[in-house]
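User: Predict the structure for this protein chain, please.
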Amino acid sequence: MVALVAAPRVASAEEIKEILVQENTKTTTDTVTLIADIDVGDDWSVDMITGIKTRLLSSGLFKDAEVFSSTVPGGVRVTIVVHDKHSWVIAPAFYNQPTNKGAGVGYGENNLFGQNQKLLLYGQIASGDTFFIGAWVIPSIGGTPFYAQLDTYLKQSRVIEYKSPNGYLDSPEAIRESRLNYLNGGIRLGIEPIRGYKLDGRLRGAVVSYSDSPLFGNAKAPSYLGKNPDDQGIDLGSSSATNVQNPGKEGNDVSAEGSFTIDRRANYLGVTTGTKLSVAYEHSLNALGSDFSYSLLSFGYAKGWQVLERHNLNIKGNFQYGRHLPFQQELLLGGTSMRGYVNNQYRGDSRALVNLEYSLPLFSLFGLSVRGLGFWDSGYIAFLNEDSKQRNYLPGSRREDQDKFAGFKNSVGVGTRLYLKQIVLPLLGVDVGYGLEAGDIQVYLAIGLTD
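Assistant: Here is the predicted structure, written as structure tokens:
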């Protein structure tokens, strides 16, 4: 296995006079050299070989890669031998998660036109989220440092809101169920002047509407609205589903986002090393017709360590701070981000989340790699800012009504990941999480196109 450590370039008197790419049947020669990050005229040192191989394998396009040099008049010829993976897949997906069960089918192309471009088309019908997603990622526009992304997300979601927790160990019950229609599209343009350093901007627009918002199950309004009418939040109306207010207003949601990312990670068959740092700021654009006014600041951190050759320790963290967030943009906790809790059981405008995972190989057979993992998830979510006038809050959800420690949650668990050497995406993920505060176990299963 190639050690996944980015090797620094070492200055040398030897100059690259020629680059020869062999055995590539789909990926273009220009794309191979772009990923390898070398060019004719660069200085050459044998110490660069490890870094080049790491970049080629981390791209996910090649089953293997070899790099060597030979002397030619005035310098060296660098030869790169790569064998392309099968780059596309059409696959079903089946979901069996708390509050979300369904199936879908997707098409993914990991090397469109042989230029490392990504195309994803996926649709599913589920009890929780029925949606279509399409994305086209262009990592280099015409071989330049500029990149682009076009995407659309057309969704109808059954959104369940839960009673605001009264204490740290409280497991809130479901109260209001809404059918959110969210028709979204966006474009991202950016530049990567130095490998791993990205600066970009994204323009996004969506239409938000609701089909209905009944009370959940057999709940009756008087049983949870509280005894003090002045402390009820909004008036949800009677227990009749037709009289219950939607959780937020409808309209156009238009925003712009700017982000800066430093990503120095490498990955090979489930082993990730290196560091990623990111910061992003999103703000609504009323001048372009947005009916919502809000902002969201995000920070992200990820670090991976290779342990004992094939073991892997990963830590991921993010912090998000929002102001006046409408319902469709509120931050969520529970589900795959906080395993051991029901999907999206907690909501807020501010969130901090840390995921710690340790994985190790179980066995490999005919290119199939099966890994086991243990994890710890820890997070905090709450409404910390003044109430948004774009929202119809449930009783007890307003800032002044909340227990500040109720949004702190932790979970532990185990899981598995399956990888094929010929395909980039994991084919199967199963996690079993135990929520420490909830005292409950949740199982998350996804077959097909999963991350």
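Residues 259 and 280 are 4 Å apart (CA to CA).
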